[in-house]
Amino acid sequence: QKFVYDFTEGNKDLKDLLGGKGANLAEMTNLGLPVPPGFTITIEACKVYLDSGDEPAELRDEVSAHLDALEKRMGKNLGQADDPLLVSVRSGAKFSMPGMMDTVLNIGLSDASVVGLAAQAGDERFAWDSYRRLIQMFGKTVLGVDGDLFEEALEAAKEAKGVTVDVDLDAADLKKLVKQFKKIVTRDAGRDFPQDPREQMDLAINAVFDSWNTDRAKLYRRQERIPGDLGTAVNICSMVFGNLGPDSGTGVAFTRDPASGHQGVYGDYLQNAQGEDVVAGIRNTVPLAELESIDKASYDQLMKIMETLETHYKDLCDIEFTIERGQLWMLQTRVGKRTAGAAFRIATQLVDQGLIDEAEALQRVNGAQLAQLMFPRFDHGAASVLLGRGIAASPGAAVGKAVFDSYTAVKWSRSGEKVILIRRETNPDDLDGMIAAEGILTSRGGKTSHAAVVARGMGKTCVCGAEEIEVDTKRRRLTVGDTVVEEGDLVSVDGSTGKVYLGEVPVVPSPVVEYFEGRMHAGADDADELVAAVHRIMAYADRVRRLRVRANADNAEDASRARRFGAQGIGLCRTEHMFLGERREMVEKLILADTDDEREAALDALLPLQKADFIELFESMDGLPVTVRLLDPPLHEFLPDITELSVRVALAESRKDANENDLRLLQAVHKLHEQNPMLGLRGVRLGLVIPGLFAMQVRAIAEAAAHRKNAKGDPRAEIMIPLVGTVQELEIVREEADQVIAEVEAATGTELRLTIGTMIELPRAALTAGQIAEAAQFFSFGTNDLTQTVWGFSRDDVEASFFTAYLEKGIFGVSPFETIDKDGVGALVRSAVEAGRATRPDLKLGICGEHGGDPESVHFFHEVGLDYVSCSPFRIPVARLEAGRAAA
Ligand code: ADP
Ligand code: MG
Ligand code: MG
C-alpha cells in the first residue's frame, strides 16, 4: 500500500484517498497551474494512525523519499541553515471543514535557518515574522499551548511600540517576540520549541491526524452529517511567501458570486501577509478588484486561471492564492460552497453556457436548498429602523435577541429563546454558538471570513463586515452612532440584503412560495431571476422522475394548496380530524352507546358530516387519487382527560349532584384507558369491535363519490385500512366494505371503482405482505408507526430523552424518524414490496410517513420501486425535486 503521493501523481477524483485539498492540488498541478511542489499523505495513513494510535510503519520512509525528491527539485534542504526549504503541513479531509482542523506554516525555520532565510530574501523583518508565526502556530496546534498567550505577547509588543498592526513591528521587535514566544512554549508545553526541522514536520503531521478528533471538528461533522471515521489527509507543500513586502500578498476568490451566482470578480486580497491573516480578519482586506491596480500582471493571470478552473470543474470554484514578489501561486481550489439561491441560478447558468446538461443541473441542487428558499423573508414595505449594513453573506430573515458570545447563545437558545450571535468576527470556537443562533452578525471580515463561510455551509442567515456597528463584547452591547443595543434586545438580520434592523421586522412569504402558489411568474428583477431558475429546475425534475408525489391533506384547503404545489393526489387523508370540534359530542355518544339503537343514531348523525367533507375533498382533487384512511387513533383521544373527569365527578358527588352522563363517561374512560395506547385499541381493531363504524365511513366515502360522479366529477377514492397485522383483519373489513359499496352503487345507479388497500405499518404486516396483498389493492407504508414498532420506541417519548445521547455516540447519524433507517425499517419495506408484487403484480405502492418529504428517504423509496411518496403540502416541491434527482 502506498501512503504518499506527489502532487503530480494525484487527481481530483481521488478525494477519498487524498482528501479534497490534496486531490485538487494535484489536479491543478496537472493542469499546469503554478502550484508550489509538494506531496500528500493519504487518508488511509491517518486511519491507521487513529485506529492504532501509531502511524503505519512504512510511512516514515515513504515521507523521507518524497522529501528527498522535493529537496532535490527545490535545490535546498528542509531547514537548511544558509537557505532553508520551508513547507506547510496542511490538513485536508474528503469534505471541506473550513477552519476546523490544523495547518502549520513555515515548518523548517529554526534559530539557525532564520538567519539564512533573512540573507536569501534580503529581508530580515520577513524572516523573523515568519519564524514567530511558526512558533505561534506550532505552539498552539502541535504542542497545545494556549493561543491567547501568544496573542497577548503580540498585543503587548504593538502597544509598547505604539502601533496597531503587526506590519509596523520591525525585525528587532520580532526578534524579541520570537524569544518571548519560545519562552511561552517552554513554560506552557513543558518542552522547548524543536529546532530539528524533520522533527517539526513529523510532529506537525501527527498533530494534523489528531486534529480530526478535536471537539470542534466532531461538532462540525455532526452538524454537517459528515461521517466520523473518515480521517484526514496531510499535505506537505513548499512555502511561498505573501509577507515579503508590498509586492507580495495573499487572497481568496470565487469564480462567481457565491451569494447570487453572478459572474464577476469576487474575493478579498491582503498585501504583505500570510494566508491565515485573510480568513482571520486580522487586518482589513481590500476587494479583489483592487489587485488590478496593485499588480496588473498577477491579476490578469489570476483571472485567466479562474476561467480555466471554472471551465475545467464546470462549476463555481473557490481558490486561495499567494503572490510572492510578483509571482502568482495557487494554494487551493475546490468546488465552492454557495447559497441555496445561487445553487439554483448557477445550475441553470451552467446549462445555458453549455457546460453541463439538465441531468447534471439536477445534481447541483438539492431539496434542503429548495426548502430553505421557501422560508419567509422580511417585509420590505414594513416600517423598520435600519441599524447598519454589511455584506450579505448568507441569505435568510433572522430575528432574535442580541447576544455577544457563544456561551450565552447556546444557553439562551436551550431555554427556547431565539438569538442573534453578534461578534466582531467569529472563529472556530464560536461554532456551537453559531449553530444555536438564528442568525450571525459580525462587524468585520468579508465574504470569505470564517463567519460567512461557515454560515453559508450551515444555511444560516449571516451578515458580516457591518463596519458602522461597534461591537463591545465586554459590555455585551453594540453601538451605532447614538443607538445602543444591549444584550437581549431584539434585532432583525437580513442575510439577503446585508441590512440589520432594530427590533422585529415582520416577514412575508418567499418569492419561491409565491411562485408555487401561482402568484408570481418569471420576470426581470432579482427575486424573479431566482424564480425562473427554480421553475426550470423543477421542470427538469418533473420530466425525469418516476415517483409520483402526493400530499397528506385532510381538508379541501390543504388539498388545493397541495395541488398548486404539484401534488398528484392525496396519499393520506386522516379522518380523525373530522371527528373533532363540535363533532366530538357525537363521537362521545357513539362510544357511550349501550344499545344498537343508540349506536346507530350516533353513526347516522356522523354520516352526513363525513360525506360533506369527502365531497369537498374529492372536488378539490378531481381526477386525482385520494386515499382516505379509516379511523385510526385510540378512542380515548376523543374523550375527556381521565384525571380531569375523575375530579369533576368526585366534586359533583360530594355535592350530591353527579350527572348521569358524566358518570357513564367516566366509566367509559376507565374502560378504554390503556397503558400503551399506541399499541392498544386503534386502527383496524376499532373497526372490528365497534359495529358499524367503518361501514359508516365507507358509506360516506361511497356516497360522496357517487355525488361527485352525478355532478360530472371524476372522484378517485381509495379506502385505506390502518394498522393491519394479518390478512384476516383486512378480509373481514373488506367484505363489509364491499357490501356497503355495492349497496351505494345500486342505490345511486353509479359504478364507483373504489379500491381498498391497507397501510403496512406493523412488522407483522410487512413480514406477511405476500398474504396481505391477496386482500389489498394497494399498500401504503406508514413509516412513522413502522419505525416505532420496529425499533420499539415511541417518537413522542424518546426524541427528547435519549436521541441526543444516541446521536452523540454515533448510534444514529440522524433520527430514524427524520430519515428512514434503511438497514432495518427500510429492509422490511423492501421485502414487503417484493412479496406484495409477487402476489399481485399491479399492486400500487406508496409511503405516507414523514419520510415522504425527506430527501434521502425519497431516494430510497425511488430505489425500492414505490409508485409514489406522500408528504405534507409544503414539502411537495422538495419531494418532486428529490424524486427527479433520484431518477436523473
Ligand atoms: P484551511 O484548510 O484552514 O484553509 P490551509 O491548509 O488551506 O488551511 O492553510 C491555511 C492558510 O495558509 C491558507 O490561507 C493557505 O493559503 C496558506 N498556506 C498553506 N500552505 C501554504 C504554503 N505552502 N505557502 C503559502 N501559504 C500557504
Ligand atoms: Mg485553505
Ligand atoms: Mg399509523
From TrEMBL:
Domain PEP-utilising enzyme C-terminal: 532-883
Domain Pyruvate phosphate dikinase AMP/ATP-binding: 56-284, 290-341
Molecular-function GO term, any one: pyruvate, phosphate dikinase activity
Domain of life: Bacteria
Annotated SUPFAM superfamilies: Glutathione synthetase ATP-binding domain-like, Phosphoenolpyruvate/pyruvate domain, Phosphohistidine domain
Pfam families: PEP-utilizers, PEP-utilizers_C, PPDK_N
EC number: 2.7.9.1
Sorted UniProt keywords: ATP-binding, Kinase, Magnesium, Metal-binding, Nucleotide-binding, Pyruvate, Transferase
Signal peptide region: none
Co-factor(s): Mg(2+)
This protein's record includes keyword Nucleotide-binding: yes
UniProt enzyme class: transferase
Reactions mediated catalytically: pyruvate + phosphate + ATP = phosphoenolpyruvate + AMP + diphosphate + H(+)
Residues annotated as domain PEP-utilising enzyme mobile: 417-498
Statement: the UniProt record of this protein carries the keyword Transferase: yes
The family this protein is said to belong to: Belongs to the PEP-utilizing enzyme family.
Protein name: Pyruvate, phosphate dikinase
Organism: [Kitasatospora] papulosa
